Amino acid sequence: MKQKILIIYAGGTIGMQASENGYVPVAGFEQQVRQQLSTDSARQLPVFEMLELDQLIDSSNLQPRHWTELARIIEAYWQQYDGFVLLHGTDTMAYTASMLSFMLQGMDKPVIVTGSQIPLAELRNDALDNLITSLMLAGGYDIPEVCICFNGRLLRGNRASKLKSTSLDAFDSPNYGHLGQVGINIELHTERLLESKPLLFNIPEFNPDAVVVLPVYPGLSARVARDLLNHNSVKGIVLHTYGAGNPPDANTELMVLLEQAVQRGITIVNVTQCVQGQVSQGAYATGATLNRIGVIPGSDLTLEAAFAKLHYLIATEPQDKMSQLMSQSLCGEMTE
Ligand code: ASP
């Protein structure tokens, strides 16, 4: 039996067209896709239907409410399709893929997120290849995960980051092996895939102000950080530190500010600014300060996954479970 896939177009370069102000998303992408795939060999593809969001966005305008909207669409159509391909802008693709992985934790079919660096409307593009490969993976393989498929790489969604702004191999997952490679053949590393699980979706609404990111940098002052952290609606902070998870702990005013935030019940998770490797909070005395304060070490979570996980847990779990859940891998997002 031929598999049936739902393609959801949310915006992003893949379906954009040139305007006087640069590329913008344009409605009616399905027509372009069908036209491109009207060749005989396209019969090798699974059957697909397409759904386009009413408001297409450049994904740099992504808001947490879009995650709820996208997950609800996937949930509503879950039983009718064998897999899903989400066409999304690359700028925040790793945030959305991470969040979907938390909201759709019970999965028995693929959700493949893809997009492109060059629109399908351009003669030379990476859009067609990314789309075709994603459709083939979604329709022909048992992949019970939210993945990013880009430039011949199949990556776990919550391990991926956009690392390159102009190359076609824009995405990688530096802390987790590729789930698959697509060259002449499609090679899947099935041993790296999550196990298929019975349906369990948890799709909350988000308070966009609940989570903030505080990057450390030379000169960061408590004065500047205070405005960000002392906002009433902030419930979680991703602390983006140096190297093995080191903050400027000689800034005692800043450390006291963080400590007070933890005491007020705010969850702080520590992730590294390094692209590869993990936080080892306490390897240095600077990092050990964070242990004393009660900051949770974020292991090898990407910034995107840490941000999404914190939002997800704040929206779905009681405060007293945050520390335990933040420290354990929910769907392959971190090394425990
Ligand atoms: N700015 C675009 C977006 O994220 C970039 C892309 O899709 O490649 O929507």
Protein described:
46% of the residues are buried. Helix 3 packs parallel to helix 8 and helix 5 (222-229) packs parallel to helix 6 (252-263). 29% of the residues lie in helices and 24% in strands. It has helices at 29-36, 64-77, 93-103, 127-140, 222-229, 252-263, 285-293, 303-316, 322-327, and strands at 4-11, 16-19, 22-25, 47-57, 83-87, 104-106, 111-114, 146-150, 153-156, 161-162, 171-172, 180-182, 186-188, 200-201, 211-215, 236-241, 267-272, 296-297. It folds into 2 domains: 4-201, 3-Layer(aba) Sandwich (Rossmann fold), CATH 3.40.50; 211-326, 3-Layer(aba) Sandwich (Rossmann fold). Strand 7, helix 4 (127-140) and strand 8 (146-150) form a beta-alpha-beta unit. The model has no long low-confidence stretch (mean pLDDT 96). The chain has an 8-stranded mixed β-sheet with strand order 4-1-5-7-8-9-12-13, with helices on both faces. It is elongated. The protein is an alpha/beta fold and 336 residues long. The chain contains 9 helices and 18 strands. Aspartic acid binds at residues 11-13, 58-60, 89-91, 115, 117.
Question: Which helices and strands appear, and what pairs or packs with what?
Answer:
Layout lengths: L3 E8 L4 E4 L2 E4 L3 H8 L10 E11 L6 H14 L5 E5 L5 H11 E3 L4 E4 L12 H14 L5 E5 L2 E4 L4 E2 L8 E2 L7 E3 L3 E3 L11 E2 L9 E5 L6 H8 L6 E6 L10 H12 L3 E6 L12 H9 L2 E2 L5 H14 L5 H6 L9
Helix pairs in contact: 3-8, 5-6
